[in-house]
Design brief:
303 residues, alpha/beta, D-Maltodextrin-Binding Protein, domain 2, Double Stranded RNA Binding Domain, 5-stranded mixed beta sheet, 35% helix
């Protein structure tokens, strides 16, 4: 039997069950799920950027892999660090769901409709930087917890709107909560947003062969470019970085856009380019961002 390590949030378990069903269908072999609570799930009173970053969502799952209690771990790719610890590999990237951000509100139909002073919740420095730059009259407040917790805070009136990943809402059958799917021109997504990644122990050829049936080459190339930008800029959730890549209709050329900014919205650098090598494209866009002042932004955030 194959065993999947997963966080125990509703969305994470949906993702693990989705992968389990696909693997069982492809291989005819049973797949079970090992649910786990991670440090990222336990610390809810501080923003991720202040408690160690998104890697807090994967460390316990990696321990389960290392100890042989699980064969693979299913992650939202945007939560996977740009550099995996020694002994692990990102074996498969699956076809991407909607990569965009979504506005959820019971009061307005779009970001443009929010009045001055409206309170908007988000867990992301990336979203905060872009919101403050474009809508300086809004009040942006931290929003932690799983999807149901965040929606509950909105529903009891703590804020007028919240920003969530459209993919998570759609996967859990909550697309009806989306008032606006925010165009990338307004809010560029995070690197890897909407995609699922499967992590395994390095050198585990049997599991690698099993999960290879779920790989999507187009998504893999797109997210490689996005993650290359983040890696070149020392990417973590402490960096308000957005990176979004789509393949042109020719099936070869990648179009990559990226932004990096101060969380207070006072500075926002943006770059885009086309190319066929995702790693080289990511490095080129990262260098252009540095040339525009991204290095100063990053230095200010580290101070």
């Amino acid at each position: 039997m194959w065993i999947i390590a997963s966080r125990e949030s509703r969305l994470a378990l949906w993702q693990a069950e989705h992968v389990a069903a696909l693997l069982t269908s492809a291989s005819g072999q049973p797949v079970s799920i090992l649910g786990m609570t991670t440090r990222g799930d336990q610390i809810l009173d501080r923003t991720l950027s202040k408690v160690g970053g998104k890697g807090l969502f994967v460390k316990e799952l990696e321990t389960a892999l290392e100890e042989g209690r699980a064969h693979l771990a299913v992650h939202s790719l945007k939560d996977v660090p740009m550099e995996l610890p020694e002994g692990f590999e990102l074996a498969t990237v699956m076809a991407r769901e909607d990569p965009r951000d979504a506005l959820v509100s019971s009061e307005v139909a779009s970001l443009d409709d929010l009045p001055a002073g409206a309170i908007v919740g988000t867990s992301s420095l990336r979203r905060e930087a872009q919101l403050r730059a474009r809508y300086p009259s809004l009040q942006i407040v931290p929003l932690r917890g799983n999807l149901d917790t965040r929606l509950a805070k909105l529903d009891r009136g703590d804020m007028q709107a919240i920003i969530l990943a459209a993919a998570g809402l759609k996967r859990l059958g909550l697309a009806n909560r989306i008032r606006q799917v925010i165009p990338p021109e307004v809010m560029l997504p995070a690197a890897g947003q909407g995609a699922l990644g499967i992590e395994i122990r390095a050198g585990d050829s049997a599991t690698a062969e099993l999960v290879s049936t779920l790989a999507d080459q187009k998504t893999f190339l797109e997210v490689r470019a996005e993650r290359a930008v983040s890696r070149a800029l020392g990417g973590s959730c402490q960096v308000p970085l957005a990176a979004y890549c789509v393949m042109d209709p020719d099936g070869k050329t990648l179009f990559l856009r990226a932004r990096v900014g101060m969380p207070d919205g006072s500075r926002l650098c943006e770059s885009n380019a086309r190319g066929v090598d995702p790693e080289a494209l990511g490095r080129r866009v990262a260098q252009d961002l540095r040339d525009q002042g991204a290095s100063e932004i990053l230095a200010a955030l580290e101070a």
